[in-house]
Every structure is written in structure tokens, then in C-alpha cells.
From TrEMBL:
InterPro entries: KH_dom-like_a/b (IPR015946), OsmC/Ohr_fam (IPR003718), OsmC/Ohrsf (IPR036102). It comes from the Bacteria. SUPFAM superfamilies: OsmC-like. Gene3D superfamilies: 2.20.25.10, 3.30.300.20. Transmembrane segments: none annotated. This is Peroxiredoxin.
Length: 139
């Protein structure tokens, strides 16, 4: 896996993935940025959400659950002093489907958190990560 991050100007950078996708990162105005892109630490949380969401959907599909949507709502706290690492992360899953088994949803989330999601496991080295979920019955 490769990535490239290029400084544009001010506090703006363009990140390019090895798969050919790009994203703009920028700082807050008070940090010299122009607020034109996502912050790098926000990108870490989004990456974690994508990683665990991917796992949960795949596990539920393999378990023959009729899943129609999955949203990971993430809240995090950071240390007050440098390095301002994440200290707490909470992931609330909203899983929508038809007749979903709560035990299977809970197991999918646990498997992602404990075994499959590299991002969660890596961030778990500095942050206490918690999860909960709700199931929404699809029409």
C-alpha cells in the first residue's frame, strides 16, 4: 500500500492514495489554514469508520442477514497536551435491515473490533474504544 501527500500552500495538503484517489486536507483558520478540506485527525476517524463499517456489513452479509444500510457515528476525545492522540473513541452503529438478529449484529461489531479492523486495533493502542448499536427495521 502506498500513499503520497503533497503540500499545496498554507496548511493545505493533497493526499493521493495508491489506488489513484485524492483528498484535500487543510487546517483551521486559527492554525493558518483556510478550512478548505478535512483535518488529518478527522481523516483517521473516517478511516476507522470505513474499516469497521466494511467489516460489519461483510460479516452480516456472510451471515445471511438482510442488511440494507449501516452507519457508524463516531465521537472521539483527544489528549489536551501534545501529542494530542485520541484517548476515547465511541462508535454507534445504526444498522438497518429486515429481521436482523441483534446477537449477529453484536457479534459482527465485536469481530470487527477485536479481529478484523486494523484501524480500530491500531487506534486502540492509545484510545479506549467502545461500541454500541441500534437496529432499524427496513420498510
Amino acid at each position: 500500500m502506498k500513499a503520497r501527500v503533497k503540500w499545496v500552500d498554507g496548511r493545505m495538503f493533497v493526499g493521493e492514495s495508491g489506488s489513484g484517489h485524492a483528498v484535500i486536507m487543510d487546517g483551521a483558520p486559527e492554525a493558518g489554514g483556510r478550512n478548505l478540506g478535512i483535518r488529518p485527525m478527522e481523516m483517521l476517524l473516517i478511516g476507522m469508520g470505513g474499516c469497521t463499517g466494511f467489516d460489519v456489513v461483510m460479516i452480516l452479509e456472510k451471515g445471511r442477514q438482510a442488511i440494507t444500510d449501516c452507519v457508524a457515528e463516531i465521537e472521539a476525545e483527544r489528549a489536551e497536551t501534545d501529542p494530542k492522540v485520541f484517548t476515547k473513541i465511541h462508535v454507534h452503529f445504526v444498522v438497518t435491515g429486515r429481521g436482523l438478529d441483534p446477537a449477529k449484529v453484536e457479534r459482527a461489531i465485536a469481530l470487527s473490533a477485536e479481529k478484523y479492523c486494523s484501524a480500530s486495533i491500531m487506534l486502540g493502542a492509545t484510545a479506549a474504544i467502545t461500541h454500541d448499536f441500534e437496529i432499524v427495521e427496513a420498510p
